[in-house]
Amino acid sequence: MKNKIDVSIIIVNYNTKELTLQCINSIHEKSKDISFEIILVDNSSTDGSKELFQKDKRITYLYGFENLGFGKANNLGLKVASGRNILFLNPDTMLINNAIKILSDYLDEHLIVGACGGNLFDSEMQPALSFKRFYPGITDEINNLLFHIPEKIFYRNVWYFNNTEKDIDVAYISGADLMVRKSVIDLTGSFAPDFFMYYEETDLCFRISKAGYKIRSVPQAQIQHLEGKSFKSSIDAGRLIVSENGRKVFYHRNYSELYKKIADWTYKVTLKSHLIIYKLLGASEKANACKTKINILSQHNLMQ
Questions:
Q1: For residue 251, what are the CA distances in angstroms to 65, 77, 170?
Q2: How far apart are the first and last CA of the chain?
Q3: How far is Cα 67 from Cα 76, in angstroms, rounded to an integer?
Q4: Please, which pLDDT band fits residue 229 given cuts at 50, 70 and 90?
């Protein structure tokens, strides 16, 4: 049996060989004064990942013979993890500073906190979505309907990125850099197998919160997230189907039938009203995204 280490870093790779390699290199370059292991779970990649990573002595490499999706693949990594804390890290990320130690130390020093994450920056080093203040539900649907104006008024410049120098309570952390204490996962369970991709980290944070733990943003930890680099278009029907199915699964797992119906009705109003507004403004890409979502919801029976 392996000795306990500080952090087990679990990365799920699916045909993102170069990005994953950059991620692993950044971990070794930036991480100091902390013991860690890297567990790479490969969802049956066909881009040469297996040939490259199975020879990399810096990692534990697990190759799957099918694409399990995000949550199930991370659960595979958890089975061999020996860390006191677990970092679920996207392959399209690169550490900017000693983020892993910062997050691990924070969990060790704040026992009321079950999960935390750092500030994410995009490819241009601009603030990126790092957390959300609301869980998916009626409040969030109303907030979306109103173009996030209530959220922006109430939380000002810390509604999706922590522009302060202080840790803050949030609803959930982006799955790109979610660190959870292993003992908390043992209590709440890991990622639910109902999800393929999207909303599984939201569901995990929801369960952690229900167990009485805080979810915190720790801005001192900084990570670059090259989100979307593995996708060709933001209006990708296949990707949207998976995302909308994740939303449906989250609602079914966590809310009553009446609550789901009200939230769904609000979501329909949001999409249809935004479609009209974006058309009037000449924002064709956003209008097309709304239209695609409306068609997907109708064709694939993804409303409650």
A1: 30, 26, 19
A2: 46
A3: 12
A4: low
Residue 31 neighbours by CB distance under 10 Å: 21
Residue 87 burial by Cβ neighbours in a 10 Å radius (0-12, 13-18, 19+) = buried
Instruction: For residue 131, give the nearest of 193, 179, 74 by alpha carbon.
Output: 179
CA distance 52 to 65: 16
Q: What are the tokens at 261? A: 């119906």
Cβ atoms of residues 89 and 9 within 8 Å: yes
Burial of 21 (0-12, 13-18, 19+ CB in 10 A): middle
Whose tokens are 């958890």? That residue is: 78
As a whole number of angstroms, the distance between CA 304 and CA 260 comes to 6
Give residue-wise pLDDT tens across range 148-194: 999 999 999 899 999 999 999 999 999 999 999 999 999 999 999 99
Contact 21, 52 (CB under 8 A): yes
Give the Å distances, CA to CA, from 107 to 18, 81, 101, 102, 242: 31, 17, 10, 9, 32
In this structure, are residues 34 and 4 in contact, taking their beta carbons and an 8 Å threshold? no
The structure tokens 């990320």 sit at: 93
Please report which confidence band the pLDDT of residue 74 belongs to, taking 50, 70 and 90 as the band edges.
Answer: very high
* φ, ψ for residue 195, nearest 5 deg: -90, 145
The token pair at 257 is 């039938």
Return d(Cα 223, Cα 26) in angstroms, integer: 10
Determine phi and psi for 220, rounding to 5 degrees.
Answer: -65, -25
Q: What six digits make up the tokens of 248?
A: 């449906």
Chain-centroid distance of CA 132 in Å reads 10
Distances in Å between the Cα of 168 and the Cα atoms of 40, 95, 161, 182 are: 30, 21, 10, 21
pLDDT value, residue 205 = 98
Contact (CB, 8 A) for 213 and 163: no
